Give the backbone structure.
Amino acid sequence: MEFQRKKILIADDSHTYIMYMAIILKRMGFTVIPAEDGLEVLKLLKLTEPDIVMLDIIMDGMDGRNVLNYIKENKETSHIPVIMVSQDASNETLERCRESGCSAYLVKPIRIDRLHEVLEELVFSSWATKRRYARVTSCARVKVTCDGTTFELYSETLSEGGMYIRKKDPLPVGSKVEIDLPLEGGKPVHLNGVVVYTKGLFGGIFEHPPGMAIEFEGVNDTEAAVLRNYIEKILAQDIFESQEEIVIQPPGSKG
């Protein structure tokens, strides 16, 4: 089963927060529907039919907890997972939200790895497999070597566990490959992998171009860290550098 874009309705009275969260979520592959307060969420619920709702607890007018109660008490919307977001890290607030039916609770500043973990659980919980790593769009020119032949190709997506590479005639599933992945400002990372999935020219080209999914093999801790940092930079480095108030953090940083 292929990943289809899921819709996230996100509400917060900080336009800066919504803007930067929308950038992150879109880069993660989601469609984002912004709302500036609780009342707007109620208006958009039926119109947009979101797959997930993210609510800040403290908002002018109708706050996040009241919206959560409405969603969970209405039989037409009670099935929608709700993620509550707040700077309040107290167990008391967390428990109150859980008792009201929230599916997850994120504390600002939000960590990208925790955000990914929560979204994976909510989006893919009914699937046979879940994405272990955050996936980002990538258009890097990579060298792929198989059986002594080297191809210069372009990537489509990248994660810490593998990547999808565009190729009109994909290598067969099971092919062992070596990949040289160039990183901005650093030396290329040399990785080994195996082709685990292919898509031909007429196999849903409008969802993904023809190519092959490669799962990395034997990645050591150093290589994993380099990949993780590179992916986090693609996701949010421009946000970290430009935002006035920090609301999102990469893994390993202090809250």
Summary: The radius of gyration is 20 Å.
